[in-house]
Amino acid sequence: MLIVALNPAAENILGISAQRARGHSLLRLLDDEPELRDILSRVSRTGDHYANEMRLAATEVHAEERIVDCRVSPIDCGGASLLVEITDVTRRSRISRENALLIQHGAGRQMIRQLAHEIKNPLGGIRGAAQLLERQLGNTELREYTDVVISETDRLAALVDTLLGPGGPPNKQPANVHELLEYVVRIIEAEDQKSLNIRRDYDPGLPLIDLDRDQMIQAFLNLVRNAATALQGHGKITLRTRAATNFTIGNTRHRVIASVEIEDDGPGIPVELQDSVFYPLVTGRPDGTGLGLPGAQELLSRHGGLIEFDSRPGRTVFFVRIPLDQSGVK
Length: 330
Fold this sequence. Notes:
Layout: H1 8-14, H2 18-21, H3 26-29, H4 34-46, E1 50-56, E2 66-77, E3 80-88, H5 90-136, H6 140-164, E4 172-175, H7 177-190, E5 197-201, E6 209-212, H8 213-231, E7 236-249, E8 252-264, H9 292-301, E9 306-312, E10 315-323
Parallel strand pairs: 5-7
Antiparallel strand pairs: 1-2, 2-3, 4-6, 7-8, 8-10, 9-10
Helix pairs in contact: 5-6, 7-8, 8-9
């Protein structure tokens, strides 16, 4: 499995020149990727063509994990017995996933708003009837029952308001994303989470962005609180900010966006929930409501942004994408 030749595209993907790579193991250059090792062995043994999408781990040259299409074919040319074709499809895969998240958010939002309106209408009638009944009761013990009806009706009404989300357009003012994150950290630390190790990796070059302060604090708070809960008070949360250029969100290409990453080293999101975590009422915690992530996604959508995530045991990252130019976002 030693490299005989590389073309310029392969030099770029592997992060090594053809001259340096010649005679070295392809697997060693890719950290002995198990899936690639299996593909190479299989084609070498059977002579069949093979193609698969696979993930390449981060390296010293490429800081982020990449998704590639890998095709391996048997050949007999210039001392080579295998032809390996690798195409980086990371951005294409991300755009597909972003579109799926936007569709999921839109479907979930429409469903929950219809449901919320259907629930809220009879709640007012129940509360009013309970208040009228309370006035007719002379027995204090019986009034305790009507008090329960009224209080539980109010609780359900508050839940419905949460589902419907904030009303009216965002009140956007120039805001420092780092100041909002620090405000959220103070809230989390006040919630008996001081044993958490919260690290900052901020990009000081990020400019002020026109944001609704209260809405963005709520979105960040939902995400950081989820990370703290997953860690059960012990572990590390990393808050990271970066600027990304030529970034596509849905069908809109943005010249520059702010990317806020909230990373924890907890157990990760269960695989069976990863395709549905942004739907309302989906949660992996017995005491969870399943409203935090959909609510945060809704607040980001009001800023033309999007929340993505990548999760595996030991590393879960939520990526908050916010366009720097908010002039065209309503």
